[in-house]
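Now for today's protein.

===
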Amino acid sequence: MPALHYDKVSEARDNFKALLDAAEHGRPATIRRDNQTAAVVDASRLRYFLARLAPHAEVVSEAGSWWAFIPGVPVSADGATLNDAIDEMIDSLREYAEDWQDHLVGVPNHENNWGLVQLVSLSTDAQLREWLTGARS
């Protein structure tokens, strides 16, 4: 089946099932409104892709503590054990994603973190743990 494209929101609304079916099967599906085009994608496919593109977390042990951070992203965590640091990092990522959506989206040194925010928002804690520790899901 070919890609789906609707030039009107009303057309897309009338064919919403077809849009969701296309997304489920990985086919391009778009909706145009004025000068903006939105893509409809399957969340698990998007998450899978973003997990491979997002910057990798670095974890270090120093002076009896564990530290986790993502270079270039203002998020870090520490803990007495590796698990503690990862748990804290998951919480920090969730807080950052909320802050980004609330007020950082248009701030120049944060606006390019869109992909990370999407990854965090589309992931369970277990998926974030796997991503942070390098066990790709």
